[in-house]
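Hi L., both proteins are below.
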Amino acid sequence: MFVLAEFKDVVKIPPWKFKRKFNDAITDELNHKLANKVFLNVGLCIALYDITKIEESYIFPGDGSSHTKVVFRYIVFRPFMEEILIGKIRSCSADGVHVTLGFFEDIIIPPHKLQNPSRFDQTEQAWVWEYDTGDGEKHDLFMDAGEPIRFRVVSETFMETLPISGPTGSKEVEKPENKSVSPYVLNGAIDEPGLGLLSWWENT
């Protein structure tokens, strides 16, 4: 679910932070700049892991800040394809089941990747698995908001819009003008035994 991504960047430390330990000041600046940002084909940045190289610092005329080129590794959220994750149902719509991991909410399980057969209940605003009990009857299993759900990651989508300069070799992806569009979306699936609401499989 989490990977380490190596970046290079020039870190600017303002004069009022010179009294701090140098490594701590660099760490603060990198986390402030990168945490919770999505970078194209990299993923969602979570936190600095370590700094592997610090080069000489420079102070330019007319600018009292120090500028230091650093090489560092950052913890990034980017699940592997086919990885199994557990989240909670955030909401349901005709588009599918929307899932959250707490720190990341742009996960959707589309209708064709739900247990079959499933239907969307407009009144309850929930998807329902029409579970075949084996004796010719069906039992409705509702996918309610807040329920823990186990799903398989099947695809990812990065939405490239106007990039902001990020660390060398990366592009930060801005939120598009349409706020309903996310810069990074995961598609999941629960269309096989063992996947779906945890409560479905507790006694199996």
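That was the first. Here is the second:
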Amino acid sequence: MPRLKYGSILRVFVILGLLCIWVQIMLSASSVSMDKDGEELMNYNDTSEQVLALVPPELHKYLTVHHKNISVNATDRIAPKNTSDIRRAIEMINEAQTIYNEDIFGPVQNDTIIIAIQVHTRLTYLRHLIVSLAQAKDIDRTLLVFSHDYYDEEINSLVRSIDFTKVMQVFYPYSIQTHPNEFPGMDPNDCPRDSKLEQALKLKCNNALHPDLHGHYREAKYTQTKHHWWWKANRIFNQLQSTAGHTGMVVFLEEDHYVAEDFIHMLHLLRATADKTCPQCEILCLGTYLKTYQYHSNTDKVEITPWHSSMHNMGMVFNKTVWNNIMELEQQFCAYDDYNWDYSLLHLSQNRPGREKFKVILCKGPRVFHIGECGIHHKKSNCNASTVISKVQKLLQNAKKYMFPSRIIATITAGGAKHNKKLTKGNGGWGDIRDQELCTNMTKIGRQFRKYIYYA
């Protein structure tokens, strides 16, 4: 083959190879960018006309989006320039324990239903949760406690604009946002997640001796959720002045949940049925992860079964007596190598000395729905929330005639194989001794909130 022709063919192959490498790099960068900024972009999606059509006009105010510069990326949001100011603002709000609208709806009573909502940054979903809460019957007799792990003025403004019931905000004070370059955030000298033990020891990184059970090192964005849930529950049950003598029910929701208009009505029916039929039922559950729902046959049916974390963690309800039972095993919760709060509770449930596993009474026709398409465990590239929200809205509209049953029928089941499978080990992500110590120390703070800074 002539040298010139051979050289030309070689150049073509080299160019094609470089082009392939460039395409792979661009695709990889695009994927990373989508994971990184997908949550940001989702928060600026306009609510579709289809969704708005099913929302009463007087509630559209909660869906009003104030457009901002969406070029700000996720890293900028996690590491704001005014961390000290945010810490001071959080401390002041937590100390004040202000209850908004108390002058309109009256003070918190010992049997007031408390709805605890864990909030991160998914503003679009939070807007729709608030709209759904606003349409719930008897919502004006509740206290909404929004527990935040991210301080954001737009989110704060939205929460404080609620005018249909009592509202309180609390802020998780050990967040990634308030500790961007130190534990409980990511210290620059923390071990990379996938470092091998030998590499970590050579690096002399902070947590070299404490990988999780799978050999990985902590990631703050995952550990934060369990810390926040644990702190929030302890804050509500043990630290707030307004709940010092509270004996009523606390409903646990998240920012990407959506409630049916009769969820409070069903909550009362569940509690009354549990008292008569299943006094050992410590947990009530209003939600489910089923893909299809038969309201014409299940709206008045409930099930009593062993509690399982991945099936009964949405719209979960319990009172201070149950929390005290959980607190007796706080060391197990905090030491269990699983970054999920619900699997950590399942571990407690399956290992309670001299006691059976938690039992739950749950709605067969759910009253709490999951509308989240993006977040820590959801990496879909299309983060438009309108599709799922519209689906839930239409479902509830079609089920309207089956809502507010006068009575419910309970069925006792032993649970399937998944319910009763013994946890042999956790999902990991919680091997760092600092996470375990912070978790335990959170419950040592007295009723009055005191300044507490965790030093690694």
